[in-house]
Amino acid sequence: MDQIEDADVEMPELVELVDDEGGLQEIIDIVRVHRWKATYERIIATAADVNSLILSNHVQLLTSSTRTSTVLAISHAVTLRLGGR
Fold it and tell me: Is the pLDDT of residue 49 over 80?
């Protein structure tokens, strides 16, 4: 129970989403955005030849949401909660 109360304090945006009717789907979308972002960053960091389509998709992913900063902050918090996976 303490972990749930800690989440209320540490991640109020996440708790607000869970309480929202469509919040679970939004959390799933946030996690997907985080995974895609990490995938693109890994490709960009390791590929010898990064083409413009990959870079364009990465930029589009980062700017597609009107709540990008919230999405990234929550996805970071989710990552920390999952032990950095």
Answer: no
